[in-house]
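Students often ask why we bother encoding 3D structure as a string. The short answer is that it lets us treat folding as translation between two languages. Here is a chain of 64 residues written in the first language.
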Amino acid sequence: VGLESGGIHVTTFNSIMKCDVDVRKDLYGNIVMSGGTTMYPGISDRMQKEITALAPSSMKVKII
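And here it is in the second language, the structure alphabet:
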């Protein structure tokens, strides 16, 4: 198609950062992955690592 975009971790991070500051902690702590591609081995661990690298260090990231 010729289009480039960030990965799902970038999209997730950008979505959380657009939300009110008061709810970001809850959002980082409750990221739910669903759908067919989430069944790939290691995808949750990779998402955890990539979101943790982007998120503020004070945030606890939990991928469900």
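Translate back mentally: The longest helix spans residues 43-54. Keep this in mind for the problem set.
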